[in-house]
């Protein structure tokens, strides 16, 4: 899992945890409001019941008072005062009990809210510490990975430079060997061409001498005819023995580039030394190929060329 996916998952976890806590706080507030509403309803019911009782007692008291009005005004006032005192004490006790209950309820509510707030604050602090630790570890791991990747890239680049330099050196050496071999081949061809030109000059000189001899004989014959003297004809030239040329067997050249490792340039070099077919290449030896190909042979596997040529020659 990548760092971005991990951070998205962690952020989603934070949002879900925050939503869960917010829902929990809302639930606590709703339950507290419901309890307060129930308490107020109970309080109102108790007050109504007390009022009802007081009303009933007052009615009874009025009836009793009305019944005993005639007996004694002083007794009636004393009873009324006592009843008033009793009602006042009961109302005062009820007010004190209600105030104490409300105070206890407010204290419990504040304690619950404070405890919940403290718990949420502790969880948030722990979450912040875990997030900071995770980010620090991720940054350290990322830096270590970046340094390791940089080291690998540097090593690969150095190896590539070394391989490139070695390949350039081999190519330069092969190029020089091929150039030297090409110069030797050109010198050989130049010498052969000079020899052929010299031979052709000799033949041309011989033909010219023969033509001069024939022309001298022709002039002598013409002078004799003008003088009307019979002249013996010149002796015929000695017969030239004709030798039949050897039969020429035409062999269709093969496409040597069908062999893995032989390109058009290598095929041209092989053709220049008389290797045109798979069979001729199969009859060659690795030493002969390295000798005639020079630097080009060092870049290829001549043994495999010969094996492939044998297989292709048999097909």
Multimeric organization = single chain
- Tell me, rounded to a whole number, the average pLDDT: 77
**Number of E-state strands:** 0
Uncertain stretches: none
- Classify the beta-strand content into a percent band: under 5%
The separation of the N and C termini measures 57 Å
- What's the shape? rod-shaped
Coarse structural class: mainly alpha
What string gives the helices and strands in order? HHHHHHH
CA radius of gyration: 64 Å
- Give the biggest beta sheet: none
The total count of helices amounts to 7
Q: Please give the domain count.
A: 2
**Helix content range:** over 70%
Commentary on this structure:
This protein is mostly helical and 315 residues long. It has 2 domains: 160 residues; 61 residues, DNA polymerase, domain 1, CATH 1.10.150.20. The model has no long low-confidence stretch (mean pLDDT 77).
Give the structure's gist in a few sentences.
By secondary structure, the protein is mostly helical. It has helices at 3-67, 73-226, 264-272, 278-283, 286-293, 295-298, 302-314.
